[in-house]
Write a structure and sequence with these properties.
The protein has 206 residues and is of the alpha+beta class. 22% of the residues lie in helices and 30% in strands.
């Protein structure tokens, strides 16, 4: 299991070709029931962000993640520089850059390599399960996979498939009806830009 389009390679032409194909796929899909999915996950708004919360509720078919957005922090920092504002962004509060991602109607969830072998300094070998709070989001990819197509036919529902890669080289597959992304707290990020409107380059707008 790997990401199909966001591959790790130094071949620039291949990267551009894959990215073009990915954007064509995304633009061919109907996200009217889940507009936050492409908005936050096509350009990886949460790239390098730590998982602050990870809760799977099977009874309500919910998956709730709290993710830090380093991309938002970087966009605001760059904007401050362009506006000639002091670089006080390093005094930011981490909680101002945390977003809650709520996946509704989750019908499938799987983690690849959730049990790994760990060797301690003494040479002892033990097995550990994946701990989200010790990992970070790397990339995400919206997929029109055979799994999604099969579940859509079986359940007679419109579903989406999002695959995530973490820094610990684990892959998370989520098939769901919609995702809603909201900032965790109500602090407006314009406080970092002297009241100027914040522009995020890492949001996908089609």
């Amino acid at each position: 299991m790997r990401l199909k389009y966001k591959i790790d390679t130094e071949n620039e032409k291949l990267v551009k070709r894959r990215w073009k194909a990915y954007l064509a796929l995304v633009r061919s899909m109907d996200f009217s029931k889940s507009p936050d999915l492409p908005k936050y996950f096509v350009y990886d708004f949460f790239h390098d962000g730590e998982f602050k919360r990870f809760e799977l509720d099977f009874n309500r078919s919910l998956l709730i993640m709290e993710l830090e957005s380093i991309e938002a922090w970087c966009d605001i920092f760059d904007q401050c520089v362009q506006l000639g504002l002091p670089r006080a962004i390093h005094d930011h509060r981490c909680e101002d850059f945390i977003y809650t991602c709520t996946f509704y109607g989750v019908v499938y969830f799987a983690v690849e390599h959730d049990l790994i072998e760990v060797e301690t300094e003494t040479g002892e070998v033990r097995y550990e399960f994946w701990q989200p709070d010790e990992d970070a989001y790397r990339y995400g990819e919206i997929m029109d996979s055979p799994l999604r197509q099969r579940l859509c036919r079986k359940l007679k529902r419109d579903l989406f498939h999002l695959r995530m890669e973490t820094h610990a080289a684990r892959y998370l597959d989520i098939v769901f009806e919609k995702v809603v992304v909201r900032k965790k707290n109500k602090v407006r990020l314009e406080k970092y830009t002297g009241g100027r409107r914040v522009v995020f380059r890492s949001l996908f707008n089609g």
